[in-house]
């Protein structure tokens, strides 16, 4: 399976090797900057220039949750291995930990002096790694 974005703010999920489109998502109002599969493979999280993070449910074939709170472009997003939390990295110099069960931000991590460009959970832990345009990497305890 391959997920791609396009200039018209759509994303498409393609099956390999036959190249058939499995699902198309429309909902962001600006370009897509990243995507990540849920650990169970039943959902997808996307990040966008529209400052939002969206969660897509494959069974519902559409957006099931929009997370708003960043002031600028969201460059990256990733799932925690338990599937209950999403991390996001933004051009607003912050990263956030979202609790998808209560549909809100649990923590905002501040400290980078420039855009936070990527974010990743260490598998099966509460540690988050961010990289920034300020030329630093940071490890965070997301508890």
From TrEMBL:
The keyword Disulfide bond does not apply. It comes from the Eukaryota. One of its GO terms (cellular component) is axonemal central apparatus. WD repeats lie at residues 25-66, 67-108, 109-143. PROSITE patterns: WD_REPEATS_1 (PS00678), WD_REPEATS_2 (PS50082), WD_REPEATS_REGION (PS50294). The keyword Repeat applies. This is Sperm-associated antigen 16 protein. It comes from Eudyptula minor. The gene is Spag16.
């Amino acid at each position: 399976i391959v997920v791609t974005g396009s200039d018209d703010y759509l994303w498409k999920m393609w099956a390999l090797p036959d190249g058939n489109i499995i699902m198309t998502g429309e909902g962001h109002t600006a370009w897509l900057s990243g995507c990540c599969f849920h650990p169970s493979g039943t959902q997808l999280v996307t990040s966008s220039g529209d400052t939002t993070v969206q969660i897509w449910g494959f069974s519902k074939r559409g957006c099931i949750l929009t997370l708003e709170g960043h002031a600028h472009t969201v460059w990256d997003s990733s799932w925690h291995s338990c599937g209950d939390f999403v991390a996001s990295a933004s051009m607003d110099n912050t990263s956030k930990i979202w609790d998808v069960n209560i549909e809100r931000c649990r923590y905002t991590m501040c400290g980078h002096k420039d855009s936070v460009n990527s974010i990743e959970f260490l598998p099966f832990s509460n540690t988050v790694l961010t990289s920034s345009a300020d030329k630093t990497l940071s490890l965070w305890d997301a508890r």
